[in-house]
Design brief:
Layout lengths: L2 H4 L2 H8 L2 H18 L7 E5 L7 H6 L3 E6 L2 H8 L14 E5 L13 E7 L15 H15 E10 L5 H14 L1
Parallel strand pairs: 1-2, 1-4, 2-3, 4-5
Helix pairs in contact: 6-7
């Protein structure tokens, strides 16, 4: 199943209330932020596959603004709730979320972002629920659009869980081909 169908309302609520998951996602996001090696000062970052907004909290604490995108409305509903993505308990100050399918390409203008983090999301592009969803094409559209929406010289740090060596090779090949 793809992420949109996997994260039902109940599954999204279980994910949001899992303290271990929250801690793990935040730790991974902190590491990703470190690996971005951003210049001093605030940056505009993309959180690709932001889910409930766990990975956005460390971005905000570091003084950055972020835009998150996720295919699951149920996950985004939790990110947009008062207890969700914003560490201050309110939405809209330093973050926004967009419902979008990464496999269709990112809907942002060229050069918009100073960097990108993606925690536990890219592997979902390797699954297809519909005949027209071809993983190789979905991955390529994601990586090509990611390359375009990052400013020149910006970095992306993508953490994901490949199912096996073939899936890792599929993701790697798409990333190399996409820029």
């Amino acid at each position: 199943a793809n992420a949109a169908s996997f994260y039902s309302r109940g599954e999204a609520d279980r994910y949001e209330s899992n303290a271990r998951m929250a801690a793990q996602q935040r730790t991974l996001a902190e590491r990703a932020l470190h690996l971005l090696d951003l210049p001093p000062g605030p940056a505009l970052l993309l959180d690709a596959g932001c889910g409930t907004g766990y990975s956005g909290r460390p971005l905000e604490r570091a003084g950055h603004t972020w835009i998150g995108t996720d295919i699951s409305l149920n996950m985004l509903r939790n990110a947009a709730s008062p207890n969700g993505a914003s560490s201050s308990g309110r939405r809209g100050g330093r973050s926004q979320v967009v419902c979008d399918d990464l496999g269709c390409g990112l809907p942002f203008r060229n050069g918009l972002f100073d960097g990108c983090v993606s925690i536990s999301a890219v592997q979902w592009l390797c699954y297809a629920d519909k005949r027209e969803d071809v993983p190789r094409q979905r991955l390529l559209r994601f990586f090509q659009s990611l390359y375009k929406c990052l400013r020149r010289g910006a970095r992306a740090v993508l953490q994901f869980y490949p199912q096996d060596a073939d899936q890792l090779q599929l993701i790697t090949a798409a990333a190399m081909r996409g820029g």
